[in-house]
């Protein structure tokens, strides 16, 4: 069984040795970050610049060293858990009082650290049965849905479902439809993986991701852009792909991907448009909420141009006004399955490589040799979904969705992601739960 950050286990034996023995760039960066908290003296800001992307240090006008001193004051720390997953890592640290914290780290695509955060450990309860999942997700003020399926020999069985037919806002899972549309375009020959897209002010979005920081006019191969869109959930990458394909092509992919009510995703919004309408001028939100499909398309045509919204403007939830991408858990499962088939058919292996680059949580590759993952979030919205294939080719799909009117009720996603990891490691999918 694989424990996750926030596990009910105490210290994992050999956690420090696992961190010290990780020879990857992620392991190197994570060890350096842990040593920032445990070294006898804290470094100066000028000594940190080579290890972070410039925007990280720019977010700390008083200097990151000041924040680092606050973190160090909670120590000395002992490493009790280390979980590396692709370009992200989580380290559980125990302080002298026994209190546990999680140091989370994300690498930029160019190598330096893009995100480094220390916060209290989020406790994720064990999962031994579906009732454990229900007890954990039943929270005041939070609506949720879940779906777990098994597909074998062309037959799909539902292992668990809770409000799985109810449309829910899903955040970045809309990028699954963009990937489907792109795979279709490449298969038809209208787009090649080596084609390039160009970063422009009108297509620059907000994080997540790092492509928003590229200079105007930067040209990026479609293959790299698609990778960042899925594996790093890069919003600017997604908007570049949508601009390349056209809104109509993505809306066709929604229908062909099996969405139960495609009108919910018409017009198909870019992340840039959601940010601009959702947290820009208040009259835009009112107009969007009151308009029909044609009225909304006219509104989108009027707001073409550079984004006026900053990340600090985000806050109040807007999914209630239709400013998100609404999909039921079954809709998510269907598009995941369709993408898995795209990956199987693509002789180049590019689609498969992109889909399986980031599994979201630590998984046992012997138990799950193929994992497709996507997460999504917006204020008041959190979702995670997985398609897992066992060595016999049996496919399992897991979808977890949360929605609230207050983002604080949902948090930063560590809890829901952890619940997904718990479920995957529990044995419930394959009937071997302990």
From TrEMBL:
Gene3D superfamilies linked to this entry: 3.10.450.280, DD-peptidase/beta-lactamase superfamily, ORF12 helical bundle domain-like
Xref: InterPro entries: Beta-lactam/transpept-like, Beta-lactam_cat, Beta-lactam_class-A, ORF_12_N
Molecular function (Gene Ontology), one example: hydrolase activity
Record domain Beta-lactamase class A catalytic: where: 155-276
Domain named ORF 12 gene product N-terminal: residues: 24-113
Stretches assigned to coiled coil: none
Keywords annotated in UniProt: Hydrolase
Record region (Disordered): 1-20
Superkingdom of the organism of origin: Bacteria
Protein name in the entry: Serine hydrolase
Organism: Streptomyces silvae
């Amino acid at each position: 069984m694989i424990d996750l950050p926030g596990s009910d286990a105490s210290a994992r034996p050999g956690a420090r040795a696992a961190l010290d023995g990780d020879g990857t760039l992620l392991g190197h960066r994570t060890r350096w970050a842990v040593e920032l908290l445990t070294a006898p003296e804290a470094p100066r800001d000028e000594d940190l610049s080579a290890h972070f992307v410039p925007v990280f240090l720019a977010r700390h006008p008083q200097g990151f060293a000041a924040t680092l001193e606050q973190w160090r004051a909670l120590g000395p720390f002992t490493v009790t858990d280390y979980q590396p997953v692709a370009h992200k890592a989580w380290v559980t640290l125990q302080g002298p009082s026994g209190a546990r914290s999680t140091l989370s780290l994300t690498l930029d695509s160019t190598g330096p650290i893009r995100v480094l955060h220390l916060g209290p450990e989020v406790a994720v309860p064990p999962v031994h049965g579906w009732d454990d999942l229900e007890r954990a997700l039943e929270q005041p003020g939070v609506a949720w849905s879940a779906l777990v399926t098994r597909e074998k020999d062309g037959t799909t069985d539902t292992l668990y479902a809770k409000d799985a037919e109810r449309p829910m806002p899903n955040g970045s899972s809309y990028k699954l439809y963009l990937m489907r549309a792109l795979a279709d375009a490449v298969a038809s020959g209208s787009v090649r993986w080596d084609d390039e897209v160009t970063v422009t002010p009108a297509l620059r979005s907000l994080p997540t991701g790092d492509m928003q920081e590229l200079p105007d006019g930067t040209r990026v191969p479609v293959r790299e852009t698609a990778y960042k869109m899925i594996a790093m959930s890069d919003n600017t990458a997604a908007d570049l792909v949508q601009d390349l394909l056209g809104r109509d092509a993505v809306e066709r992919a929604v229908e062909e991907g099996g969405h139960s009510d495609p009108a919910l995703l018409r017009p198909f919004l870019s992340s840039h448009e959601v940010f601009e309408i959702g947290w820009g001028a208040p009259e835009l939100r009112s107009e969007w909420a009151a308009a029909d499909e044609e009225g909304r398309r006219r509104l989108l045509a009027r707001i073409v141009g550079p984004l006026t919204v900053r990340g600090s403007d985000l806050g109040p939830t807007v999914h209630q006004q239709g400013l998100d991408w609404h999909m039921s858990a079954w809709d998510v499962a269907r598009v995941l399955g369709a993408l898995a088939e795209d990956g199987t058919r693509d002789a180049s292996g590019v689609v498969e490589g992109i889909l399986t680059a980031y599994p979201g949580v630590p998984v046992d590759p012997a138990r799950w040799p193929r994992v497709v993952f996507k997460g999504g979030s917006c204020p008041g919205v959190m979702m995670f979904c997985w398609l897992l294939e066992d060595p016999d080719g049996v496919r399992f799909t897991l979808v977890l969705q949360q929605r609230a009117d207050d983002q604080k009720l949902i948090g930063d996603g560590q809890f829901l992601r952890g619940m997904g990891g718990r479920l995957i490691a529990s044995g419930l999918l394959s009937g071997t739960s302990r």
